[in-house]
């Protein structure tokens, strides 16, 4: 068990928890409404964590002041795309380390006992599970993420292709980018029909639900993440599709064969910093290549595999152009068709983003693949 220790009238300790993999703080001091942002930023940069004991809203203001001091990394002049990407990730990691030094203490029942603090017990129960083992210290940035996730889960994300809302859980990638869902909604189904479909890496279950709505007789959705599996089950139950969609895992492929296999792997072949990054980063393209190498043996005669993938990795220099087509051919597959779409999300229009050139030119594709 990892513990943080500090002095507050007497020596005290609490369990340390970080979903994003922040390291255990070795030195902790108490901070409150009198703490200056310049002092907090300096201590955080030196590796000292600050346990906040003042007003909750003042803590948020201090966090914003520290964030301004971290600043936003300006795009380099004539920097290669891969260098810009790695520099951007390093800056984000530095920012996370610095801001992650401002801590709050959750009591044994997940109560946050700060002035003007919201009731975070339900949000923490959903993110962390039932409380146990005494008070726990978390980064304020993480707690704000937990609170935001509870709000997303409550109101849901509208998915026009479903004419419904999907309710993401904490730590599960939300379907806020609708273009990949729209591709799956408009791609022509295999001529032989879809008695059974697989959705590999289902996440919130949005594509599994869409396949069921498009007439698949049975959908088996898989995910490596227990959180994602719980989230997908919750969503298909909300949509009244739990008799059609079965959620399983952690294996990529379920048993048997399917008329249609859909896979929307993480788009960037880079190492995730924590499990929270699994929806974005696929180290070495392992999931992509696992899907392709196993597809031919899992298709029914006349069946198709749909690979939904952005070319952002190629535009950032993280994957060679032609690598996807080469992997498709090496797996004994043929490209029957490809549907393309352009991004509509706000980051593609953010000219201040260090990765703007790649994001604005990005193309998302649905590759229709057949065996042999």
Automatic annotation (TrEMBL):
Keywords: Methyltransferase, Transferase. PANTHER family: HEMK METHYLTRANSFERASE (PTHR18895), MTRF1L RELEASE FACTOR GLUTAMINE METHYLTRANSFERASE (PTHR18895:SF74). Gene3D superfamilies: Vaccinia Virus protein VP39 (3.40.50.150). This is Class I SAM-dependent methyltransferase. InterPro entries: DNA_methylase_N6_adenine_CS, N5-glutamine_MTase, SAM-dependent_MTases_sf, Small_mtfrase_dom. Residues 167-309 form the Methyltransferase small domain. It holds the Pfam family MTS. One of its GO terms (biological process) is methylation. GO terms for molecular function: methyltransferase activity.
């Amino acid at each position: 068990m990892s513990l943080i220790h500090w002095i507050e009238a007497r020596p005290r300790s609490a369990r340390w928890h970080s979903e994003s993999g922040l390291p255990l703080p070795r030195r902790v001091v108490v901070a409150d409404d009198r703490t200056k942002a310049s002092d907090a930023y300096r201590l955080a940069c030196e590796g000292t964590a600050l346990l906040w004991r003042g007003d909750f809203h003042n803590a948020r203001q201090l966090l914003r002041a520290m964030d301004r001091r971290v600043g936003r990394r300006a795009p380099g002049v004539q920097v290669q795309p891969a260098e810009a990407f790695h520099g951007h990730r390093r800056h984000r990691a530095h920012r996370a380390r610095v801001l992650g030094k401002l801590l709050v203490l959750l009591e044994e029942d997940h109560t946050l006992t700060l002035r003007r603090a919201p009731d975070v017990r339900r949000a923490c129960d959903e993110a962390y599970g039932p409380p146990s083992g005494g008070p726990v210290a978390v980064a304020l940035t993480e707690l704000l993420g937990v609170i935001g996730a509870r709000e997303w889960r409550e109101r849901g994300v509208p998915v026009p292709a479903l004419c419904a809302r999907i309710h993401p859980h904490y730590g599960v990638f939300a379907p806020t980018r609708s273009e990949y869902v729209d591709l799956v909604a408009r791609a022509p189904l295999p001529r032989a029909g879809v008695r059974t479909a697989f959705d590999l890496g289902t996440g919130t279950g949005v594509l599994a639900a869409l396949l069921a709505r498009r007439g698949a007789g049975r959908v088996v959705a898989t995910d490596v993440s227990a959180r994602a599996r719980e989230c997908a089950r919750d969503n298909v139950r909300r949509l009244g599709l739990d008799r059609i969609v079965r959620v399983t895992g952690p294996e990529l492929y379920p048993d048997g064969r399917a008329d249609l296999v859909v896979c929307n792997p993480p788009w960037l072949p880079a190492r995730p910093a924590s499990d929270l990054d699994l929806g974005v980063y696929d180290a070495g393209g392992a999931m992509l290549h696992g899907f392709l190498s196993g597809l031919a043996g899992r298709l029914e005669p006349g069946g198709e595999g749909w690979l939904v993938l952005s070319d952002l990795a190629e535009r950032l220099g993280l994957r060679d152009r032609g690598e996807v087509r080469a992997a498709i051919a090496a797996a004994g597959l043929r490209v029957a068709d490809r549907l393309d779409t352009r991004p509509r999300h706000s980051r593609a229009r953010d000219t201040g983003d260090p990765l703007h050139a790649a994001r604005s030119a990005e193309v998302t594709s649905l590759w229709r693949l057949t065996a042999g």
